[in-house]
Each structure stands twice: as structure tokens, then as C-alpha cells.
Amino acid sequence: xxxxxxxxxxxxxxxxxxxxxxxxxxxxxxxxxxxxxxxxxxxxxxxxxxxxxxxxxxxxxxxxxxxxxxxxxxxxxxxxxxxxxxxxxxxxxxxxxxxxxxxxxxxxxxxxxxxxxxxxxxxxxxxxxxxxxxxxxxxxxxxxxxxxxxxxxxxxxxxxxxxxxxxxxxxxxxxxxxxxxxxxxxxxxxxxxxxxxxxxxxxxxxxxxxxxxxxxxxxxxxx
Length: 223
Description:
Layout: H1 2-25, H2 45-48, H3 53-64, H4 69-73, H5 77-93, E1 98-100, E2 113-122, E3 129-138, E4 141-151, E5 157-162, E6 176-181, E7 186-193, E8 204-209, E9 214-220
Parallel strand pairs: 1-7
Antiparallel strand pairs: 2-3, 2-9, 3-4, 4-7, 5-6, 5-8, 8-9
Helix pairs in contact: 3-5
């Protein structure tokens, strides 16, 4: 009887250790497949056709609270490309945001002096831009002004002064100054230039999508 109990007890101990060993080691041998929905609730391709401009804008705003440059860089290349395509499609469906800013006021009888300008060009067949980018100066104050401006809608677009205005990706831009988010994709608008910005270092202006490193439009300054 005692021998039988010892055998049973030993068997139970062996089973317990085998279970613990399997629990500890099984993750090394078993693949776990996860297919989570994107947290922003981006619609499927079939649902895109039914979106109104305002619905597209709301989806885009919610998505960009999650998507940033770091998020995109951690995605596999094929997933990043698919996400970029979805976001760009939704952005193009969103309503335009026109701006009608006047030139900043100056004191007394002083006037704005024209420094240089460039005409916006399309980056490609999908990302299009037009209008003029001009720089004016009054004393220590300088401003970059867009007039008759229009660019394709996009997520988190920024205005950059760039060393290489003909760059097609982030690695080719060289030195740049980020003047902040684009105020609107249509109309006149102003961007202040800090006094320490050396304009001789920059070829022109670029409208640039930060999360996906996509160029939307460029304007090369006249020499």
C-alpha cells in the first residue's frame, strides 16, 4: 500500500513538473497569430465611397491622433504602404481648408521689401501644388507668404525650408527648417521666418507629410 502511494505521488509530481516545463517553454515553439483592427477605425475600401467630406475629415483627425512618424517607422514596409494609401485616399476626400491672410502690418511708413519667390510645382501625379511662395522683409522681420496657393489635402502637412528642393524623400532633403503645420490647403497665408535663418542655405519651400515622409509640392526660389 505504501509503495503504491509513493508511486502515485511520484507520478503526480512528474506530471506537475511536465506541465510547468511545458508552460514555460511552449512560447518558444508555438506561433501566436494576431489580427487586431486598426485603433482609429479606418473604413474598408468598400466603405470609403459612402463617406461624406466631413466624415472623412473626422476619420482622418482620429487616425492622426494615433499615427505619427514613429508609429509608421515601426510598421513592416508593406503595411506602412497600405496604411499610407488608405490615409491619403481619405485625406483627398476631406473638405478643403481655405485661408485668406493679409500681409502682416508694418509700423509707420515702412514697407515690405521683396526678397525672392518661387512657383509651386506638383510632386507627382497624385500630390499636386500650385501658386507662389514669396519672401518679404521689413527690418529684422521676414515672412514667407503663399498666394494663389493650392495643394492636395493630406495628413499632418508641414511647411519646410529645404536645402534640396528637388528631393523626393526625407533622406535627400538635407538641411531644413520646419515652419510649422500648413494652415490650409488653399489660399493666402503667412509663415514667420526667424532672424537666425540663413536663407542662402535653402533652395526653396516644400509641403511635406511628416508621418509618411511624402513630398506634396515644392517651390524653388529664384536666384
